[in-house]
Amino acid sequence: MSAVPAVRDDEVELVALRARGPGGQNVNKVSNAVQLRFDVRASSLPEAVKARLLALADRRITAEGVVVIRAQSHRSLEKNRAEALARLAEMVARAAHVPRQRRATKPTRAAQRRRVEAKIRRGEVKALRRRVAD
Fold first, then answer.
1. Of 98, 33, 87, which is closest to residue 60 (Cα–Cα)?
2. Contacting residues for 20 by C-beta, under 8 A, at least 6 apart
3. Could you tell me the fold of the domain covering 9-96?
4. What pLDDT digit, counting tens, does each position of 10-55 carry?
């Protein structure tokens, strides 16, 4: 199993924003939400990981290849920053996973025979349901 490539801190841009939603006056005063921006194409990730990351069907990846993650579930800026970085690391880990190549196989002769015999038995059961001829 291959190791997950780490995202360098200087490639991640973190911006503090005002969070939305309930929270009283604190929401209007304190910038505790975090917006993380990570340019995949300009990053130091391996090319294969970049390609799989850009191919992910994820709405957080823009057409320009920038990952935008917004974290605002916690009340502290540090926890939101840690959550945003964890989400980015999870995305990169998912892209780093190389799917196993599927090899097409043929059913064995015995499996083909069992399938045909099962179809014949099923047909016989259905034939017994027909109307009886005089």
1. 87
2. 27, 33, 72
3. Double Stranded RNA Binding Domain (3.30.160)
4. 888 888 887 776 666 666 667 788 899 988 888 888 888 888 888 8
